Amino acid sequence: MSDGNCKSCENFPKSHFCSIKKQALDLMDASKQHLQFKKSQVIFREGDEPQGLFCISSGSVKLSRTDENGNEILLKVYVPGNIIGYRALFAGESYQATATAHEDVGLCFAPESVIKSMMESDLELALNFLKQMSQDIREYEARMASVVTKSVPQRVAEALLVLKRALPDSKWTRKEIAEWAGTTPETVIRTLAHFQDEGLITQEGRSIHIQNKEMLSEMASFDSFS
After folding, report:
1. Structural contact between residues 67 and 73, judged by C-beta atoms closer than 8 angstroms
2. How many Å separate Cα 33 from the centre of its chain?
3. Per residue in 88-145, pLDDT tens?
4. Which of 49, 55, 68, 196 has the largest CB neighbor count within 10 A?
């Protein structure tokens, strides 16, 4: 966060810390570290022990995990203002997924002792994290139901909508789309070609442009898109 001060960061109003008291905020400013990661660098790996929380000040982060067959599954994309690593920290367990810089990323890291001290003295902050974890559970439940009940075209349509909403200007690879949809890059390529024939999207190299969001949303059966 710019100038080493949370309140001077343009993403501060979007973070869980926007409502904390001045004393706690001063403690955060004094204890946090500023970290930089290049695109594709790993921030933490599945199995690592959490030491604190990361807040994204610039760039974006992918959260993924590897299944028993060695396939990578893209779980979520985080953008500036988002906090990563909190679930494992509060659960007192190792990370269950790997966080990777989707593009060059600026992070603020706050150590565990500071975060827990702030939560103990600030009920609103604790409730903010509880609300976020509840939302994450809802999202993961929806993802699980999607993988089980939806066809591949439906899942690829959903992946396009979710990833485009998270980062509209990002050029998502066919591999990343496959990782979200739970299929192979080859299947994604064939499905995208069909979508293009149907006038739902256009493709220019790696770039994918959604031409008919309403029809794509209807195909994905994903009510969150409007």
Report:
1. yes
2. 21
3. 999 999 999 999 999 999 999 999 998 888 888 778 888 888 888 888 888 888 878 8
4. 55
